[in-house]
Amino acid sequence: MKESRLFEKKEALRYFFWGVVTVLVNYFSYFLLKQILAYQIANLISIVFTKVFAYYTNKTFVFRTKTSVKGQVLEVFRYVMGRGITGLVDFVGLIVLVDAFGVDDGVGKVVMIVITTALNYVLGKTFVFKKDNAAETSASEE
Description:
The protein is mostly helical. Helix content is 87%, strand content 0%. The protein has 5 helices and no strands.
């Protein structure tokens, strides 16, 4: 039981570290793109770019799932579904904050990053990078 808690703490620390890196990728890519594009388009592109970056870091460094080809296809599908939902929350949320409530887009982007980061962790842990499914899929492929 003690080993399980230690693993959970290490996983949470890895998620925090890579989450900070991902937030920086999201934030800076948004502001760089916003220099040449409308904020809505800049946000959409930064969301997609960040989701791809986050998949790789979450799979490799945070949840460390080892999956067969079939398992990885399912994992990618679950990831796209889960992150699609949070991407939609991020995209629509920023527009609502800016256009409906008059919030500065920089402040709104930070608010949406905080909300979607929390949602992404919960979905990543419970829906996408499930260790039991990865082990089952690997075992069934051998």
